Amino acid sequence: MAADLVAIQKIYAREVHQGAASFETSPPGMDLTRQRWQQVRAAGLPYLVAEVDGEIAGFAYALPYRPRPAYRYTVEHSLYVAPSWQRQGVGARLFEVLIDQCVAAGARQMIGIIGDSANVASIRAHEKAGFERAGTLRNVGWKFDRWLDTVIMQRALGRGSSAAADGEA
Question: What is d(CA 146, CA 56) in angstroms, rounded to the nearest whole number?
């Protein structure tokens, strides 16, 4: 996995430079990419890499949504697919495995924050993965000389909110 971080960093850097899915304006270097990977591992959550024909086609991971204790059953995900592998099922498969592994880790809700409300492909991919639109934050990011929205998508995991959290009354 650590060996894949160079390819992961390149996929993400391209999105930072050319896309609006990330609101970062300069891509993280390898040290920060490695630190983020270690943060996911330390949280006991999945960090996945999709490899197709020996090439890193995409990656996905989940982190705690917020640090406050009441949020402990909610995760936020990130998922990026290399341009040459988009619309070929890589993202759908990453979503499927990521969701399964987050359920196994005890998560009950998953949040996706989509940069740019015009990012229809990402919104549709989330909907196909069972997410629903929870809201839109208008004009909260400035990138590429324009204001960008974020679309908040949410999906229940496992038993969702239908029962008390494990070990809690």
Answer: 31
Domains in the chain, CATH or no CATH each? 2-156 (3.40.630.30)
CB 144 within 8 A of CB 20: yes
Long-range Cβ contacts of 34-39 (<8 Å, 24+ apart): 34/2, 34/5, 36/61, 37/1, 37/2, 37/5, 37/8, 37/61, 39/63
Which one-letter DSSP state was computed for residue 168?
Answer: -
Write the pLDDT tens digit of every residue in 14-28. Answer: 999 999 999 999 999
Tell me the C-alpha distance between 115 and 12, whole Å. 14
Q: What tens digit of pLDDT does each residue of 42-55 get? A: 999 999 999 999 99
Helices (H), the chain: 5-18, 30-42, 90-104, 120-128
What's the pLDDT tens digit per position in 73-91?
Answer: 999 999 999 999 999 999 9
For 64, phi then psi, to 5°, come to: -55, 140
